[in-house]
Every structure is written in C-alpha cells, then in structure tokens.
Amino acid sequence: MKLLMIGDVVGGPGRRILQRELKQLKAERGIDAAIVNGENCAAGSGITAALAKEIFEAGADAITLGDHTWGQKEFAGQIGGVDRLVRPANYAAECPGKGWCLVTMPTFRFAVVNVQGQVFMNPVENPFKTMDRVLAEIPKDVPVFVDFHAEATSEKITLGYYLDGRVTAVVGTHTHVQTSDALVLPKGTAYLTDLGMTGPYVSSIGRDLKPVTKKFVTGMPSRFEVAEGPCVLEGAVITFDPSTKKASSLEPIRVRDPLAV
Fold this sequence. Notes:
Helices cover 23% and strands 28% of the residues. Helix 1 (11-29) runs parallel beside helix 2. It has 5 helices and 14 strands. The chain has 261 residues and is of the alpha/beta class. It has helices at 11-29, 49-58, 127-137, 153-162, 209-218; strands at 2-6, 8-9, 33-37, 62-64, 85-86, 100-104, 109-116, 144-149, 169-173, 183-184, 190-192, 197-200, 231-241, 246-256. It starts with a strand and ends in a 5-residue tail after the last strand. The chain is globular.
C-alpha cells in the first residue's frame, strides 16, 4: 500500500494547488490514501469546518493540525463535528476534538496521530508520554501514521527512534522546509524530519517577503500576510505492508509551479 502525507497547506494559494494536484498525484502514483496537514490553510493560521470540507473534497482522507489549531475562533465549536480530523493529542484533555482517529478505506484501515513538540513551542504535555498513552488506545492490528508538529529537529529525530517499530511512519511538520533525511529506521518505521509546505514558495515559508524582511531588518512588528505567486506541493509517499505495519520506503515528493520570468 502507498500513503501520501502532505506538508502544511498555507492559505488560499496552498489550497488551490492541493485542489489541482492531489487527485492527480493519487491516480498517477497508485496512492491508496492521503493525509494533509491543514493547520495553516485559513489565511495562514488555523482551519474552519468549511475549509476542512474543501480539503477532503480535494482528495484528502484525513487532516492533521498543529499549533495554529485554534487560529480561527469559531473552530473550537466546529471541531467535534469534523470526522477524520485530528488536533495534537498532547493538548489538555479539556480541549475539544481528538488527537487520533481511525480511517477506513475499501481494502484497509489505518490510524492517524497528531502530536506537538515542546521545544520552542507553546506549552503542551510531553509528546513521548502522550504517544505511549495513545498507542495503548489504538487497535494493535492497524498501521499508525504520526504527524509530529514540532520546531526542533533533535526532538523530531528522537521521537522517530522512540517510536521505531511501534508505528508505520513518523513525519515532521511545522517548519515548512522539506528535509533530506528520508529513511526507514532499523525496526521498520518510515521517517522524515519535515515534509515541507504546500503554498507559495517565493516567500518566507509561505508569507509575503516584504513585512517579514521589515521585521528582520528593523525589529518593528508587521502583519504577515500569505504570499501570492507560484506554489509548491511537498510531502512524502510511504510504501508499507498493512499486515506487518512496517514501511519499506519513504519517498519525498515535490510538485512546483514554474517561476515566471
């Protein structure tokens, strides 16, 4: 089986390239299911039920989130009604929504888990202990795909090895820059430190360059709007055996609009 995991979708431009490319990618590459990180899809911060529906209609089979889960105020009241969408499992138990879900496809089913890092991030419960708890809840016979939404590469790599042999894949999101360390760990878990992003690439990780540059040059606060222009879709295809739950490969992918000259 092949499962595609797609990096953070940024604003309207990211949603548009997802709509244009995802179903075609699934068909051309024989991909059986797709998981999309949607935590930046609403003007760069958060998601809504309507936008989640749009991402599902584009071809996603599950949606993961991250530190901008509550970026749109109305979503706290909507999240409970959106199936196959998960927010970080290490949020406080009182938060609405859920941190993992089961997805049933025509020929197999799989679990999706979302956790958030602690290093350089807002306070959350320990992601390592959270994964121990969550894995005790998930049926033992299903492959498990983990989106670790975190800043520090060391934290991501360490969680990958911590979960090696216990889950089918651990991939990172949040930094919006695809890394070059794709591998299958010794016990059969596919790993990539960051999937990258889906959005405008003539930008500062999806944001318009002018206000970001002004902030770096002057230190003065600016409003960071989503950039326009050519887009990229980034992610990774994981090939795995649903019976053993082990991965045999992880292939990073990138679909890039041409740069206008």
